[in-house]
């Protein structure tokens, strides 16, 4: 798909990628700028060798090649969990990234650990809307400008304000529970616009947003489309967070100029390629990673060495399962975030029994992998629980349990990462009733106001 600003009437065709041939990604001449991008890799390390191979092949056809990330790279799999993200940084440095935006899961190892990891990362780490609340100071640079010959491209990082609720909320607070960080959810459009204006004032010819916002199933006012529509000056948004697959979609910005949006799915399902030619035309393509056969030898060696380091621990047998424990329903669709699943029951049962509690709970969004029938290894468990959270027990009132269950199903029947898989409790849910849950700007619970969806709550008597 070819796109040129202010020529939307001539170039309005939008298509969704099915299986682009890898060779389509390369530049037509040595003046083209080629930007390879990924998002939501979540520790799927096998794709990095192919990304590095694509980079080398593009460099044979043009002098101007960059690799960028739209976030969620250090968390989501065993290799991230065992190293608190460091292994992923090592691989990314071997590939040679130029810029990386922060996703919500970059914060999962705590903010001090994130600072250590981004210091290790050779690429520029970007987020224009992650600030401290006491003085509104940016924690990371909002943008970076890279010169490709006579053309300057600004990359602006945008992190979803959902990060507070979709990482670990306590990481963003002080010892008194007061928020000391913000993602500017109440003025996101203005914050992004300020960075666009600053980058243009610094001489940027084009603005490419590396956004971790999402295009569907996320907070409506914070989608990539809405941010594009309420700002002006963005040429292209390379997006992540919702794991959407979009080869190219155009939306008008607040001035009527067109913004090209592209997204590559998750776990290296695709590698994206943005090409900017000397005429100021933008072209996005998606390369199906599984069908691309190239491998970079140097990066493959780095990956192999890392795999050898943790395989001895990860390959140990932890137990056996007679059945496949899955996050999916019978049709193969993800169910763990809006329905009972056997893997959710297993997790919640384990917590309740091991801690001798009345109720066991596990949020569906925290269960990240299935476990096949047969021997269960530590890698399997780390794939299921990649976040390194501690299991703990707490004594609460019955009212808190009722509110907790109500909050759990506030989005039902739609998906929500906070949907609870439970043990030791059963209840009815009436989704025809609008959710009575009131939350704050960070999606944190405030109160119940109105008719409840949850009824007939029963707690297991473990003695009988």
Write a brief caption for the model:
The chain is an alpha/beta fold and 464 residues long. It has helices spanning 46-59, 78-81, 86-95, 111-120, 163-166, 188-201, 224-229, 297-314, 342-354, 378-384, 398-408; strands at 2-4, 33-38, 64-69, 99-101, 124-126, 131-132, 143-148, 151-159, 181-182, 206-212, 236-239, 245-252, 258-264, 270-276, 281-288, 317-321, 360-363, 374-377, 420-423, 425-429, 437-439, 445-448, 454-459.
Q: Helix content range of the residues, please?
A: 10-25%
Strand content: 25-35%
Unreliable stretches (pLDDT < 50, length at least 5) are 1-24
The main pleated sheet reads as: 7 strands, mixed
Task: Describe the protein in words.
This protein has 464 residues and is α/β, with parallel strands linked by helices. It is built from eleven helices and 23 strands. The protein has helices at residues 46-59, 78-81, 86-95, 111-120, 163-166, 188-201, 224-229, 297-314, 342-354, 378-384, 398-408; strands spanning 2-4, 33-38, 64-69, 99-101, 124-126, 131-132, 143-148, 151-159, 181-182, 206-212, 236-239, 245-252, 258-264, 270-276, 281-288, 317-321, 360-363, 374-377, 420-423, 425-429, 437-439, 445-448, 454-459. The strands form seven sheets. The protein has a seven-stranded mixed sheet. The chain has a six-stranded mixed sheet with strand order 7-8-10-11-13-12. Strand 4, helix 4 and strand 5 form a beta-alpha-beta unit. The longest helix is centred in the middle third of the chain and has 18 residues, at 297-314. The chain is globular and about 75 Å long. Residues 1-24 have low confidence and may be disordered.
